[in-house]
């Protein structure tokens, strides 16, 4: 394991010596076996990702990013330096995408700790990003909103309606991805927000959002143009996942 600062190495050395003394005196169990990261990848795919609707997403990230970055390491060798390098090497990706990758990495390392393969999971520092659906500070005026939507319309009318719905309802990324036409009432001019990436939300978290005048004709036109149960399906007709480009780049501040 390598360290950025000498004091970190000294702190780690003192910690290891203390643990070794506790083991010698019978106050602490033996350290976990030196498992390779590859074993954790296999365990995660077979036992954790297999239970998720987004299994293919986890498998893709592990294949394209986890194994190339950490496949040569044992679990106890993965620390702040290795994770920082992982972030730097992915500077070409959006910060939100990198955060999604780090969230999965953290979950995998925590699982390794829980099953006894890792004594302590390393701290993971995530880049700060604008949270989709919660921060539209760069859309402060009607003119800024108009400019943004015109640019979206020029890219793709479907993208335009998607972003217009986000702006006029304040719905989050997962809520837009999971929105069904059955949740949209044109008669009552209400959207029932009751789904996200992980599926239906808890009953107490269901809420109703009004369909404002600028949005109503856009949703009606969209309804006539599609027979999919989803309001905003991806190109394959399925629900967008969290790493989809429409979420990562669409709301970056200009």
Overall description:
The chain is mainly α. It has 2 domains: about 30-115, DNA polymerase, domain 1 (Orthogonal Bundle), CATH 1.10.150; about 140-250, Orthogonal Bundle (hpI Integrase, Chain A), CATH 1.10.443. Helices cover about 50% and strands about 5% of the residues. The chain has helices at about 5-25, 35-45, 55-70, 80-90, 95-115, 140-155, 155-170, 175, 215-225, 245-250; strands at about 185, 190-195, 195, 200, 205-210. The strands form 2 sheets. It has a 3-stranded antiparallel sheet with strand order 1-2-5, with no helix packed on it. A two-stranded antiparallel ribbon has the order 3-4. Strand 3 (about 195) and strand 4 form a beta hairpin. Helix 2 runs antiparallel to helix 3 and helix 6 runs antiparallel to helix 7.
Write the layout of secondary structure elements.
Layout: H1 6-24, H2 37-47, H3 55-70, H4 80-88, H5 95-114, H6 142-155, H7 157-169, H8 173-177, E1 184-185, E2 190-193, E3 195-196, E4 199-200, E5 207-210, H9 216-225, H10 245-248
Antiparallel strand pairs: 1-2, 2-5, 3-4
Whole-number count of domains: 2
Q: CA-to-CA gap between the ends?
A: 40 Å
Q: What is the H/E order?
A: HHHHHHHHEEEEEHH
How would you classify the helix and strand content by structural class? mainly alpha
Give me the count of strands: 5
The profile of the biggest β sheet is: 3 strands, antiparallel
Strand order of the largest sheet: 1-2-5
Strand content: 5-15%
Shape, principal axes of CA atoms: elongated
CATH class of the largest domain: Mainly Alpha
Our Rg estimate from Cα atoms comes to 23 Å
